[in-house]
Amino acid sequence: MTGFAPSSMDKRWIWTATIGMIIFLFIQVFPVTGQLFATDVQNVMTRSQAEAKALNWAEEKFGIPSDQLQKTTVTHLTNSDATGYFSKNDFFTDYDKQWSSGTPTDTYAVELHLREDIGRLLLFLNMETGSLVAWEHYGDKPAQSIESAGDKESGTQLAAKALQYASFWGVNPEEWKWDDQPVKYGTLKFVSTKGDIGEAKLWLKVDMPPGYSALHSSFPEWRGGSATYGVDLPSSFLDYIENQEKWSINLSMFGFFLPQIILFILAIVYTGTHGGHTSYRRGIFLSIAFFVLHAGLTFNRIPGLRAESWDAGASIGDNVNLIVNLVTFAAMALLTYFSAVGGDGLWKSMGRSLWPRWKEPGYGAAILKSVREGYFLAFILLGAQSLILLILEQTLGSFASSDATQSMYNMSIPLLLPLLAWCAGISEELQSRLFGIGVFRNWFVAGARKLLGREPSNKTAVVLTTIAIVPPGLIWALGHVGYAIFPVYTRIIELVLMSFLFGWFMLRFGIMTVIFAHVTLDAILMGMQMMFDGLPWDFAGGVFSLVMPGLVGIVIWWLHRAIRSRKETGRPYA
Predict the structure, then answer these.
(1) Among residues 210, 340, 366, 531, which one has the fewest Cβ atoms lying within 10 Å of its Cβ?
(2) Residue 307 domain-assigned?
(3) Are residues 381 and 493 in the same domain?
């Protein structure tokens, strides 16, 4: 067995990377760069700014002093169905003109837990201006119902009274009209006078406590009341989304989670049977780094976990969410470790060395080479991904919705987002590429050997290796169908095609290069996301995200050089 000796890049690779970068810029970057220079775009409030603004509203509009609060949470919420409908039908320009200011699809939901068993007051704020756009109180309602209180009032009178009540909190009565439907459970529903967007109809619901009168107090009774809005969408679109989400759940369960359990067992078996070809120290550092990073990022996105429970209609505590996620990531870290040992052992048993070892003299130089080549390969991947998604958008009508669970606005420290790139690059490449391709190639070659009664030819081995990329690539793709991109098979097609590139790059340049390529790909996409999210300091954070993989590679190179120098000379490297 010879040492690690990957192929080198020639000018053709560099030219291909240049073309890939140009494609990526023209398809994904240039169409949105105007946002960076537009003079009328407002920045998005931070979570702490949203909390401070909500406390001001609570005191100013509801008469609630700060000493009456037990706890405050801030969560970014989004109407994913509405954003999906606008995206699918290219209605966002109309939405920005008609609805976005007073009734945005994305809000900061600030939940105020009140003392004296008053319950919870939920304030919805415009994320850019901080204006109060909706509110709702959860707690005991007054004993008298609005129906009995309003027996002597007509529906028209009640509707006018409800709009007067809602106007105290900023609702413009001229923008709403009663829908002429009977009062249900004390709630009156209004429709927007601004007009519909396609078949989407904007509505307002006002729950007015009985006995309300504008003359009673400077603070109208708000306990048991609410003023909320939403969008009625075509039933055909909602049925389509519901069906797609069911497919997503089934594909994730039977196409990803169950195969992952099987691969976990296989990784343990191959670690035991092929561990002699490698070292059991293989992957320990990377697996630990994966878990530590993911654990830290899980604490960082507690509001995102809260949004996930909110979307599911469940009231799951933050601690329960944390425990479930940490246990899941611990299992993934173990799978990553066994994939590293079993995968490296498998490839070496087949005569291939795809992973340099720390003890090798040229390890530091190999890391720098992997970083450099990883950037070039990342641009090839970005170009290919951009083309694939553009073709799927044009042919399948693919569209994206919003997902508050993955939102940067639901991160305590948004600047930590780029670290997620390392979690994906480490785990997915060791599991799906190093071990996944290795185990299927081993099976296919062994099957051909048994069928032919001899070693398959080099050409046959190449074909079998190419085919071996498909099963783990498909499993990897099915693990991404939970993203808010429709139809759900969009990501399956995209990532199965991308898996051929990832697999080819690993076989040609080694596992470290493809890890750096994967990390760089994600870091560039995350960096671009940060540059356009409107939060303070995130433009600088986005720039840092672009150079982060290179900086990490330089640090590893320096550490390897310093440690080897210390061992060889007995003193620190200077």
Answers:
(1) 210
(2) no
(3) yes
Say whether both 101 and 175 belong to one domain. Answer: yes
Q: Is residue 358 part of a domain?
A: yes
**Cβ–Cβ contacts within 10 Å for residue 417, how many?**
25
* Per-residue pLDDT reduced to its tens digit, 489-544: 999 999 999 999 999 999 999 999 999 999 999 999 999 999 888 888 888 999 99
175 and 269, same domain (yes or no): no
**Other beta carbons within 10 Å of 214:** 12
| Residue 233 included in any domain | no
Q: Cα(494)–Cα(483) distance, rounded to whole angstroms?
A: 13
Helix (H) or strand (E) holding 162: helix 155-167
Domain that holds residue 118: 45-226
Distances (CA, A) of 14 to 24, 373, 447, 545: 15, 9, 38, 22
Tell me how far apart the alpha carbons of residues 438 and 469 are, in angstroms, rounded to a whole number. 9
Q: Based on the structure, what is the number of domains in the chain?
A: 2
Cβ pair 535, 412 in contact under 8 A: no
- Structural domain contains residue 322: no
| pLDDT of 227 over the 80 cut | yes
Using DSSP bridges, classify how beta strands 106-114 and 226-232 pair: parallel, antiparallel or unpaired.
unpaired
> With DSSP H G I counted as helix, E B as strand and the rest as coil, what are the percentages for the chain, rounded to 5?
60, 10, 25
- Cα-Cα-Cα-Cα torsion 139, 144, 150, 155, nearest 10 degrees, comes to 30
Lookup result for tokens 């927007």? 192
Residues 160, 238: Cα–Cα separation, whole Å: 32
- Other CB atoms within 10 A of residue 467 CB: 12
236-295 tens-digit pLDDT: 999 999 999 999 999 999 999 999 999 999 999 999 999 999 999 999 999 999 999 999
CB atoms inside a 10 Å sphere around CB 32: 11
412 and 475 in a common domain: yes
pLDDT one-digit tens code per residue, 466-476: 999 999 999 99
Q: Are residue 189 and residue 268 in the same domain, yes or no?
A: no
